[in-house]
C-alpha cells in the first residue's frame, strides 16, 4: 500500500518526543479572578521530567561536535530524574552510562535505571554537609580517572544544561503565551532549567520577575545545610551555573510543604506530580497574597509523581515529614 509522505508523522525514537509540553491554566487550584497561574507541564516528557531536555541536548550536541563518540562512557551523579534521562539517551545512542546515586534515591528510580541498562554505583558515606552530593562527585571523578574513554557530564557546570531550556522550555513558553507573564517560578538544583527559561523569556518579556524555589536545607543561596528527603530540588553545593544576579527572589520550601503541594495539585487539577513540582505549587501559594494585581504567573512543573508513591504519597512518610518540619 502506498504511503502518503505528506501526512507521515512517525518519528525515529522516543528522544524525538522530548519537548513540546503543554502550558495549562491552573484555574481550579488558583480560582482568584485577578490571578492567572499557567503551568508548563514538563512532567509530560517521555522520561517523566524536564531533565529529558538536558540529557538529549547534552548527548546529541556532544555527538555532533565529537566531544562524545560512540565508544564514550558517560558518568554522572544524579538523584534520579537526570540519571533516567541520560540512561534513555545512552540506550538510544548505544553509549555506556554509569549513574552514581546515594541512599536517598527512591527505589523506583534505581530499578528504572537498571532496566534501562545503566550501571548503578551507590555511595553510602555522607559528606561534611550531612548529604551525599560531594561523596557522589568524588566517586564520579574516581570512575572517570580509572576508565579510559569516560567523561563526566557534570550537569552543575555544563552550559548545555541551561541551553537546553533556553532553546526548549523557554522558547516554547514564549510562543505559547499570548501575553507577558508577571512572574516565572521554577525549582532549582543545578539552576540550569530556571536560568535557561528566564534568559529566553526575558528577551520577549523584559519586565518579568524570576522566583527560584529552593529546598529548606539547600545551600545554593547561602543557607545552612539541613536534612532534605525530597529528591530533585536543592543542593549541598553551589552550582557553577548559578547566576544570582538573574534571580529576583528565592522561596524556600520544606519537605512537608512540597508534599502538601503535590496532594493539593492532584486533588484539584488531577495532575500527579513529583516533589519538586509540589514545592513550586507551595511557593506560588505562599507568594501570591503579596503579589500585585492583576498577576500572571508561569510555573514550571518539573516531574511526575509515579516514582514517589513510597515517599510523598505515602501517608506514614507524610505524617513523619509533618512532624519533622514542624519542629
From TrEMBL:
Entry-linked Gene3D superfamilies: 3.40.50.1100
Pathway listed: Siderophore biosynthesis
GO BP annotation list: cysteine biosynthetic process from serine
Keyword Transferase attached: yes
GO molecular function, one term: transferase activity, transferring alkyl or aryl (other than methyl) groups
First-level EC class: transferase
CDD domains, sorted: CBS_like
UniProt keyword annotations, A-Z: Pyridoxal phosphate, Transferase
Enzyme Commission number: 2.5.1.140
Pfam families linked to this entry: PALP
Domain Tryptophan synthase beta chain-like PALP: 16-303
Cofactor: pyridoxal 5'-phosphate
PANTHER family: CYSTATHIONINE BETA-SYNTHASE (PTHR10314)
Record-stated family: Belongs to the cysteine synthase/cystathionine beta-synthase family. SbnA subfamily.
Complexes and interactors: Homodimer.
Stated role: Catalyzes the synthesis of N-((2S)-2-amino-2-carboxyethyl)-L-glutamate (ACEGA) from O-phospho-L-serine and L-glutamate.
Entry protein name: N-(2-amino-2-carboxyethyl)-L-glutamate synthase
Classification lineage: Bacteria, Bacillati, Actinomycetota, Actinomycetes, Pseudonocardiales
Amino acid at each position: 500500500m502506498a504511503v502518503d509522505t505528506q501526512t507521515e508523522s512517525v518519528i525515529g525514537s522516543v528522544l524525538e518526543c522530548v519537548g513540546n509540553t503543554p502550558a495549562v491554566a491552573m484555574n481550579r487550584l488558583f480560582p482568584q479572578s485577578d490571578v492567572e497561574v499557567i503551568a508548563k507541564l514538563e512532567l509530560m516528557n517521555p522520561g517523566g521530567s524536564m531533565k529529558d531536555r538536558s540529557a538529549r541536548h547534552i548527548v546529541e550536541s556532544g555527538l555532533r561536535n565529537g566531544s562524545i563518540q560512540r565508544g564514550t562512557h558517560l558518568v554522572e551523579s544524579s538523584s534520579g530524574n537526570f540519571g533516567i534521562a541520560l540512561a534513555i539517551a545512552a540506550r538510544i545512542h548505544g553509549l555506556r552510562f554509569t549513574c552514581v546515586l546515594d541512599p536517598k534515591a527512591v527505589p523506583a528510580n534505581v530499578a528504572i535505571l537498571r532496566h534501562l541498562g545503566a550501571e548503578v554505583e551507590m555511595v553510602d558515606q555522607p559528606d561534611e554537609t550531612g548529604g551525599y552530593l560531594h561523596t557522589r562527585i568524588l566517586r564520579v571523578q574516581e570512575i572517570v580517572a580509572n576508565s579510559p574513554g569516560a567523561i563526566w557530564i557534570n550537569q552543575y557546570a555544563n552550559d548545555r544544561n541551561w541551553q537546553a531550556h533556553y532553546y526548549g522550555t523557554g522558547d516554547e513558553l514564549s510562543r505559547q503565551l499570548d501575553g507577558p507573564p508577571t512572574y516565572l517560578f521554577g525549582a532549582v538544583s543545578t539552576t540550569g532549567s530556571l536560568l535557561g527559561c528566564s534568559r529566553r523569556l526575558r528577551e520577549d518579556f523584559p519586565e518579568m520577575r524570576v522566583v527560584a524555589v529552593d529546598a529548606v536545607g539547600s545551600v545554593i543561596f547561602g543557607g545552612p545545610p539541613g536534612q532534605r528527603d525530597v529528591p530533585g530540588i536543592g543542593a549541598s553545593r553551589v552550582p557553577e551555573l548559578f547566576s544570582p544576579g538573574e534571580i529576583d527572589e528565592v522561596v524556600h520550601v520544606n519537605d512537608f510543604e512540597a508534599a502538601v503541594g503535590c496532594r493539593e495539585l492532584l486533588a484539584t487539577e488531577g495532575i500527579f506530580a513529583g516533589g519538586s513540582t509540589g514545592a513550586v505549587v507551595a511557593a506560588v501559594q505562599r507568594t501570591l497574597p503579596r503579589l500585585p494585581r492583576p498577576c500572571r504567573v508561569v510555573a514550571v512543573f518539573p516531574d511526575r509523581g509515579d516514582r514517589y508513591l513510597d515517599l510523598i504519597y505515602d501517608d506514614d512518610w507524610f505524617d513523619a515529614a509533618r512532624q519533622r518540619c514542624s519542629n
